[in-house]
Write a structure and sequence with these properties.
With 166 residues, the chain is mainly alpha-helical. The protein contains six helices and three strands; from the N terminus they run αααααββαβ.
Amino acid sequence: MSRTASRTSSRVKKWVFNDAAIKHHHGLAGFFVIKTDVVSNPMLAHRLYRMRWRIEQGFAQMKNEVNGRRLRVQERSYRGKVLLYLIATALRVMIRFNLEQHKALAPSSKLSIPGNSTTKLLMRMNKFKIRRGHSSEWWLLDLLPKQVKQWLRVLFKSGLPPRRFS
């Protein structure tokens, strides 16, 4: 027992700084402290912290989408809102993933999301309507610009809808 106590007391903890990494990060992000004993690698701890923060932001956004009140399982309207939010979130993640995949495959492509916002993208696509034709037998889709066709093909991985259908 005295041997283990002498071994642990003889250890000296010291801080090691990587000056090049500090100078690199100083110009980009500034400084903040993450105090943890779970992860010894500071870069890994920082990545994990960023991932955790994204999840926290997602939950905060979901709370705002359902009017900030607590979710009660017995209320159907909340379940519907959560389902709608999850579907919308999956669509947004799919759009972002498809864009990044497209950029990796075709780096010279000029395809982008307007304002880097999926909300703006969906609002621009919402301008195009399907209208009832002259008779009640068919529907007519507005003409789609080239950019919208490219968004449908690349971001949504869908074919172009027919101009006229019944």
